[in-house]
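Milestone 3.1: sequence recovery, worked example.
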């Protein structure tokens, strides 16, 4: 059966339950606030969510619409424990944004197995564990959004673990899209370029950042708000016939 979506609710996500990983800072923190502003009930998770002052501020502002829980996406035990709690609090999950990520900038020859494992476990194993745990709660279908990177498509010196993990994340998403289509669960990818956050603002504002900026066709780095439209599109009925797709939000950098 084909459901017709009117223009009035094409991008509507109000009343939906969204889970955002890596929620305590940067992109994840912004997306929690944005989805709350658009009427979602939001579950913000990170390793130390319960200790995050920024997440506490969102809790004070949005009350029962915002729920935080500690989860280390690298470890199946932590993910399972968090989802046991989530299942007790929510009847279902409609939207998952796998945003948690890390990077250890080192040339491959200088990257230890421990460093490699830490990056891959956060950026690839984490989204696998979270998606796997969320699927049984997506009883009415829904949208899983994996946050990849331009690093999945362009090689950068010192980012072998990061780029490999993000490239793997794209194929994970496409495989899940195949497996979950019959359950009306769509799985898509957003591939940002550099997004200005407190973690990278010093680098991006310096001479090396300026060299990078000049390579970008739109001649600027992304603000966190530049991801809003892509997230709302993939989270809402506007993309009800889109799955397995990768949406580049990089100012055109990937085509250079």
């Amino acid at each position: 059966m084909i459901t017709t979506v009117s223009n009035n609710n094409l991008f509507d996500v109000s009343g939906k339950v969204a889970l955002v990983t890596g929620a305590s800072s940067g992109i994840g923190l912004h997306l929690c606030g944005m989805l709350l502003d658009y009427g979602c009930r939001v579950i913000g998770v990170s390793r130390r969510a319960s200790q995050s002052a920024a997440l506490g501020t969102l809790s004070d502002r949005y009350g029962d619409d915002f729920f935080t829980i500690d989860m280390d996406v690298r470890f199946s035990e932590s993910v399972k424990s968090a989802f046991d709690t989530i299942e007790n609090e929510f009847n279902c999950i409609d939207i998952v944004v796998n945003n948690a990520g890390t990077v250890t900038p080192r040339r491959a020859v200088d990257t230890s197995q421990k460093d490699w494992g830490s990056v891959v476990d956060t950026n690839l194993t984490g989204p696998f564990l979270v998606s796997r745990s969320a699927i049984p709660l997506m009883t009415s279908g829904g949208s899983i959004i994996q946050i990849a990177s331009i690093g999945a498509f362009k090689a950068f010196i010192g980012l072998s673990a990061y780029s490999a993990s993000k490239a793997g994340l794209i194929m994970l998403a496409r495989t899940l899209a195949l497996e979950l289509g019959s359950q009306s669960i769509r799985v898509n990818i957003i591939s940002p370029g550099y997004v200005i956050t407190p973690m990278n603002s010093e680098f991006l504002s310096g001479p090396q950042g300026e060299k990078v900026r000049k390579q970008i066709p739109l001649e600027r780095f992304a603000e966190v708000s530049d991801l809003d439209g892509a997230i709302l599109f993939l989270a809402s009925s506007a993309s009800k016939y889109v799955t397995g797709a990768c949406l580049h939000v990089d100012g055109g950098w990937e085509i250079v």
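The chain has a mean pLDDT of 96. The CA atoms of residues 102 and 119 lie 6 Å apart.
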